[in-house]
Amino acid sequence: MKLPLSWLNDYMDIDVTPKEYSDTLTMTGSKVEGYENMGEELENVVTGKVLTCEPHPDSDHLSVCTVDAGTGEILQIVCGAPNVKADIIVPVALNGAKLPGGIKIKKTKMRGVESNGMLCSHEELGISEDVLGYEPEYGILILPDDTQIGKDIRDIYGLNETVVEFEITSNRPDCFSIIGLARETAASFNKKFTVPEIKFTQNGENIADTLSVEVLDKDKCKRYCARMVKNVKIAPSPSWMQQRLTACGVRPINNIVDITNYVLLEYGQPMHAFDLRDIEDNKITVRRAEQGEVIKTLDDKDRTLTSDDLVIADGKRAVAVAGVMGGFNSEVKDDTTTVVFESATFDASSVRLTAQRIGLRTEASSRYEKGLDYNNTVPAVERACQLVEMLGCGENVGGMIDVMGNVTDMKPLPFRPDKINAFLGTDMPTDDMVKIFSALEIKTDLKNMTVTPPSFRPDLTGEADIAEEAARFYGYDKIPVTLLSGEATCGKKTPRQKVGDDINDALTSQGLYEIYTYTFVSPSSLDKINVAPDSPLRKMVKITNPLGEDTSVMRTTTIASMLDILARNYNYRNAEARLFEVGKVFIPRNEGELPREPLKISLGIYGGGTDFYDIKGVCENMFGRLHVEGVSYEAVTDDQTFHPGRCALIKAGGKKLGVIGEIHPSVSKRFGIDTPVYVGELDFENIFLNIKSDVKFKELPKFPAVTRDIAMLVDKSVPVAQIEAVIRKSSGKTLESIELFDVYEGEQIPEGKKSVAYSAVYRAADRSLTGEEVQKSFDKAVKNLEARLGAQLR
Amino acid sequence: MKQKLEEIRNAAHTTLADALSLDALEEARIKFLGKKGELTAVLKGMGKLSAEERPKIGALANEIRSAIENEIESKKAEIASKLEEIKLKAEVLDVTMPGRAKKTGEIHPLTKVMNNIKETFIGMGFEIADGPEVEYDYYNFEALNIPKNHPARDTQDTFYVSDNIVLRTQTSGMQVRVMEKQKPPIRIIAPGKVYRSDAVDATHSPVFHQIEGLVVDKGVTMADLKGTLEMFIHRLYGDQTKVRFRPHHFPFTEPSAELDISCFKCGGKGCPVCKGEGWIEILGCGMVHPKVLSNCGIDPEIYSGFAFGIGLERIAMGKYDINDLRLFFENDLRFLSQF
Q: Fewer Cβ atoms within 10 A, N terminus or C terminus of chain A?
């Protein structure tokens, strides 16, 4: 909402700088977005008449003019504009003038001819076409012939004005008006404000003799007022009105329309002007639209309505969508002679729904949908009549039609000053509260200890609302600053939150960077990672109104998101990347239920000579650090996302912890990555459930260990996990650990075989092992390896 | 004989003083103290001495022997340390060459800032709550005093899953979820992703993060709200940061406020970062609306509380001088490795 300060001064004397004004209003709750001093950079530019205009002797596009700018002398000015000619009124920047952008105009010579100033275009003056109200021809700005000579250009266009722009919150429709802001201003500065009395003369006729109004839906239409003006002469409105409208961002149209817009801005009450000729049967009915009824609105578009929409209709058809926009058929035209002013209030949510349904948000609808005051309709329509008289653009017909719908009066609220103070933590005297309420037109009844808000404040419905009003003008900054008292609470993280932190530590310490990705994806992201058409991952939570197809479903896997980010880094030529994310996936449940939102840890690595065992190492380290025990890895050959020979399912305690592996080359190619990519997706909850939380100290060994190496040949297809299992199982308690230290295929190894070598450490907790004991255990392991896996000891 | 011995002492001292290497020292030792050395030679003549003189000369000889031995030892140490010094001098490294570090990663800047905020509130006795991102309309709107067709819904363009399920537009629904489960005293923060159908640009993202805060107890006042949030701001931005509470409107708090801090770029003088205002809007807050308390079965006549919502990205952008929101979600390593 834009507020020209001169308009505010119609109701009160306010003599502070725009900065002080803005700061004060901001701190009482009317947030100022900014203010603009129009014409600030414009100085010494006046209107002048071009007396003569001759071609420049030494140029084919310059003209030499003589200009009377009311300075008492005739100025010679060289001008380059194509539209310059004698006998026109133009803006003249005099010697020493300032133009926007810090430009200064000085006496100069142009191609040898003296020039004492500059004739200006609207652009050079920084005057927008909105301010002009039309699109001028190219060249200098030509003013109307009757413009006085020697006048400051800022006065002509109303540029000596400060306009303050407010951010108005949705609970304060009353502040979408000059008067509403004046009320807030008065309360903020502890001043009086008065709305000038509305007076105008009416002719002896009565509107009721010409027009009838019937309201059929009294819930949706709260009040309908109409007044009539005859002998209307449509013309442009005077410049003071045009300037105010323009300053508020409203384009002047003609006197009648401008009056309705002026009242809209001043009172916050939307108005509509009908041409009486177009109201069939001279009858206005406020009714529900027929299902499928079509109306052409002012903007020349057909709108199809439903029976939930409210329309203003004449004897035959709808002439306006109530509270949204007037009809094309009944708008004011150049030859309109009789006008009906409508000033009405409609149900807020009904207007909102209609505006939404037909996709049309207007100045009017955006106000109506916040809830307008039914007591504002009469002053607004009378103000319009007063303006008609002021502008001399018509004759006000006597009488007003005023039809009431179903309205509820404001109810008194309990007023407990002690409670308000206790709630705010303040010590405000009751008198101060009463003064604030009075400035806001809230009635206080100290006998019954109640307050009754005015009808333009439907947002005040409870004690907390009243407390806020008191606090706003008492000053939020004066409320003391205290720390929470009462029962102490122990701030802490839950075990899961702590594990989350541990995971971050475990992964960053291994060189992984954390990423954040969008949780909604394209359905085709699953195709990109080769997910089967019948996979349960295809059942996704769909967004009914997505921004686009690529963000239309909630992800069921993090792998595609991770690949997107890896691909982006690959494209940015980051030679290697090690990334992780802790993020949710969304698994639908039954219709109408919220999805499950399991937390996943996604891993992604490429570059730097990485292979499968790097990503596995990352997992092993993390599990080690978190004390996840009993983790096993099984080969997965049928997950289409991954390389069939380089993918593992991770399990522990009978639960699946996740999958890691090399991305299938066809998938990585689809993402534009030409190097092997390793990705994993782990399940947070299953990891959490397998964490050994009571870690206990193990006595350090007191007796020496014996190390024996076992090297063997086995079939290539035997996984080392099996070899390890056999060794562990058959070695007995004295085997402390085994470590794989060599796997070799190739020269000197028979076809189809591989050489595997382990280092086994034997130790007993209570004595030094004898060579015999170790040998026995070792022999047993060898025997079992030979028997079960066909191993040949080397 | 005594004189002879003194001569040996002097000769040894001179020889040792000139010795420059361990070899020279050994040579001197053999010369003076060896089996065929000079001292031994002198002592061999001891038999000729009188019984009276013998112990005296013996004692002198022993004294001289140990003096020479000591001198050899100390000289040895001296030479060894000289040698070591020479050796170390030869081992000089260029310490300006790069170190050999194990590469480590980093958490995302948003997590860093989030952790910072969490720690501050944990220190003030808060717990951390987590809740669903796909949420019932009831928790996201209705229970927060934002019925269907409320104009406040306009400012939060909502993604819908069905008529009554949305992608949460704010973490405020967590207020209701927590109050339904837990009785006062309540002190929680609830961080998480929120969704609004804004097209992506330098300052908008359809996914971003909020941290909701809620305190409910007997006798909680707006002064407590100011004190708690002021302390939070001072922890986050430093004690010199000025804080102002400005009236605002949220349907689920009353009175409501927005918290501005003095611009961290210009300190309040006015600059492009604060659009010349000197203040930067940081968070929204207010006293929990009595209707919201009642909706959760908490009697507003007995209990009161305050709530606040912090935009994580805004805080992180301010802290790190990041000028484009998209960078957080692009995850370019050249960006991620800066924090």
A: C
